[in-house]
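note to self — DONT lose this again. spent like an hour looking for the file last time. sequence + predicted structure for the chain T wanted, 259 res
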Amino acid sequence: MSTRTSYAQGTPNWVDLQTTDPQAAKAFYAGLFGWEFDDQPMPQGGAYSMAMLRGEPVAAIAPQSPEMKAAGAPSAWNTYLAVDSVDDAAARVEKAGGQLAMAPFDVMDAGRMAFVIDPSGAPVALWQASQHIGARLVNEPGTVTWNELITTDPEAASFYADVLGMTTSTMDMGTGEYTLFNVGDDMVGGSTPPQMPGVPNHWHVYFAVADADATAAKVTAQGGSILAEPFDTPVGRIAVARDPQGAVFSFMTPAPQSS
């Protein structure tokens, strides 16, 4: 389903980039994915730039907070998970072994959110939608197509079950078993150990593209770098990239769906 009007609890529903240089990042991703931007001024200064494709919001780019900048934190993509009640979900975080990094707060009339850290140290946001449901386009070129918890702790999945009711299953990827997150009958994300040394536990973002090889060439032409050259998997052709400000993401050309 490409167009979304709502998200069930536990489903990744939004991504945003907190970056050291929003203007440069906007130019990079506009060239890569064809995004246009709707800049919305933030109370603390700067703009929350909604990335738009065909007039619909698909992601956002924002400046790092002064605290993150002072700490020398790298630019990074954040994943948001839909919740029915962010206050109820936040109340379950510490009991499930996580940390509440940012208590629930309202984002004007867009929604209500919290920031949590799972037991393996991976940060993730919880989003209770009001006017902003999250991405309205997904699973097509230039939009998010998958969200993946990269973690060294296989038990971290139980945190998401306890807090959000997500369940897990496994799939054979040819190189070993891959953990899937499920909401009802829907596969909404995955989990895997880091494939490269030194990678911190985190939620990783995949964008769909029409041609992974051509996109890889665009990344380097625009000042980014390719960390893993395009490779084939049962679900599509995937590459891992780093933008010029240091944020890491993946992109993939999904495999044709069998009827």
